[in-house]
């Protein structure tokens, strides 16, 4: 199985105006493409890019109830799936086009058809196309998508959930979430008194220190920050701490360093790490079995 230097998540809130339907941030798209170009030039070209949908797809998915689906396979559900996919693939095309314009050999890969769920739990992951693309020298660019679900006809497959699977399959050196804010705050960042959390210790049971309060926009069908944080926790625990997770701002000077070295200084972002105990130290020494 091909390994990856970095799995990079471009947040939907960073790439789009999330409160305005299908509204991309052109500057952020260019920043993301420039960053990946620099990673390739620095020898970290074996990376996988996954981006959120932001204001693309969420509104259509919410209107047609795609997240909860329906065993009756209604006309409205099918129409909603089609409209949502048209929207999310628009953004994927924009992201991929910017990367190619920057000289990055990027190929867009949509999960629909290759990934499946049952009751919103992944039963089939389309890894082959990603692996083949990496081995051929391309940068796979995936996105949150609708997928077929054996119990409720369809479901929403979040980019964050995709990243958790990719981390298990490709054992990247690091996973970096690039967002519209500096990192994880102890409460929603627009709340008075919100403070950036430089590091989060993840215990073996998945609990974290310090605790974090999260929130999501009403039309966000993928779980917002709560899912992103849980994804990060899962990656750290399932890899027994061998895969660090970093969260920082896309349009910042620290993003490149975070992706290349896994380093974040005080005030630059948030890093999740596994709290070491005698048991976890023993497991890490023997290698990650995942």
UniProtKB/TrEMBL annotation:
Enzyme class label: transferase
NCBIfam families given in the database record: IPPK_Arch
Family note: Belongs to the isopentenyl phosphate kinase family.
Site entry: Transition state stabilizer: 18
Lineage, uppermost ranks: Eukaryota, Metazoa, Chordata, Craniata, Vertebrata
Positions annotated to bind ATP: 9-13, 54, 180, 224, 228
Protein name per its UniProtKB record: Isopentenyl phosphate kinase
EC number: 2.7.4.26
Residues binding substrate, per UniProt: 53, 58, 159
GO terms under cellular component: cytosol
Keywords: ATP-binding, Isoprene biosynthesis, Kinase, Nucleotide-binding, Transferase
UniProt-listed InterPro entries: AceGlu_kinase-like_sf, Asp/Glu/Uridylate_kinase, Fosfomycin_R_FomA-type
Domain of life assignment: Eukaryota
Reactions catalysed: isopentenyl phosphate + ATP = isopentenyl diphosphate + ADP
GO BP term, pick one: terpenoid biosynthetic process
Positions of the Aspartate/glutamate/uridylate kinase domain: 6-248
CDD domains for this protein: AAK_FomA-like
